[in-house]
Design goal:
The protein is α/β, with parallel strands linked by helices and 300 residues long. Helices cover 50% and strands 17% of the residues. Bound molecules: adenosine-5'-triphosphate and magnesium ion.
């Protein structure tokens, strides 16, 4: 009897110990086939909506290797970025920017190009650096558009991917293209869809259903709709004002849609398939996909 009690106690202790580990951050890559469909605008407002004024911890990683513009939308000028961390000039915590909107920003800039050049020891240090952020609830990764390997490595490394499209036929075709490329690299990535710039609810539903059907029929892939966002002139106005629309115009049509999408992301019951593998897992996966690819020359 005593032996049974002892075993039960040990199990309890082990379970408690497990719970002491920081919660693993869920990483979500936001991408698209066609450029300019609203990835950055939606990523910023979605991250802020998810954070609910800081109740939920959210980091927004600017991984667009082209013109990084999360900072433009937020009206901030980051002094340092991941490049400085990779070069050992800064610690990750020194480059993370806390913005008043209740989220943290990491400027990627040319840093990600440098990952391919790190040796094993440096890679381990970089993963350890990322792990210092572990415990946040979400990391949203704003990527560039298109099927370049750089974009795909973020998508493959993240726990989930959100593909953004608009109702334009070219955007729909390109969304299908990127879903196909993701499916070719990884078979178990949950792919979710947002139709941006819709004129009506029915347009949003129709476009989402079309992509879901084609992906199911021709790729045998389950794509899930996260919802749609109305075409709203206040979004463009917010970009000009350098204030995210969810903050400047919280009652706008676009903001209501983004809040609904954030609720959907936050309230989802976590199943094994969608559990976060954490930040260290994300960076390790990045290295894995790097090893399979020759990245372009670093742009400093
Ligand atoms: N729901 C919307 N209603 C009206 N305009 C929108 C909406 N979403 C995005 N836009 C406009 O589209 C433009 C492009 O948006 P954004 O920069 O977010 O796209 P992107 O996908 O990040 O582009 P890139 O591929 O260059 O990174 C912005 O100027 C923005 O004003
Ligand atoms: Mg962008």
């Amino acid at each position: 009897m005593a032996a049974i009690d002892q075993a039960a106690n040990l199990r309890k202790l082990a379970a408690e110990k497990k719970d002491e580990r920081p919660k693993q951050t869920k990483t979500i890559a936001v991408t698209s086939g066609k450029g300019g469909v609203g990835k950055t605008s939606l990523s910023v407002s979605l991250a802020i909506a998810l954070a609910e004024g800081g109740k939920t911890k959210v980091t927004l990683l600017d991984a667009d290797l082209g013109l990084a513009n999360i900072n433009v939308i937020l009206g901030i000028i980051p002094q340092f970025n991941l490049y400085h961390v990779i070069k050992g000039k800064k610690k990750l915590k020194d480059i993370v920017i806390d913005v008043p909107e209740g989220i943290k920003i990491i400027a990627g800039a040319s840093g990600f190009h440098q990952l391919a050049n790190l040796d094993l020891k440096q890679r381990k240090e970089f993963i350890d650096e990322f792990q210092t952020l572990e415990g946040d609830d979400f990391m949203i990764i704003d990527t560039g558009a298109g099927v370049s390997q750089n974009v795909l490595s973020f998508v493959v490394a993240a726990d989930e991917v959100i593909v953004i499209t608009t109702p334009e036929p070219t955007a729909i075709t390109d969304a299908y293209g990127i879903i196909k490329s993701i499916a070719a690299q990884t078979s178990d990535k949950p792919i979710r869809l947002i139709v941006n710039r819709c004129q009506s609810v029915s347009e949003g539903k129709r476009v989402a259903q079309r992509i879901i059907n084609i992906a199911g029929q021709f790729l045998n892939i389950k794509v899930e709709s996260l919802g749609f966002v109305f075409d709203d002139p206040l979004v463009a106005k917010s970009v000009r004002n350098q204030k995210p629309f969810i903050v400047g115009f919280p009652k706008s049509k676009a903001s209501s849609c983004v809040m609904m999408i954030a609720d959907k992301i936050a309230n989802r019951p976590s199943s094994e398939a969608v559990k976060g593998s954490g930040l260290a897992g994300f960076v390790k996966n990045m290295f894995k996909s790097d090893e399979e690819t020759i990245l372009e020359e670093p742009a400093e």
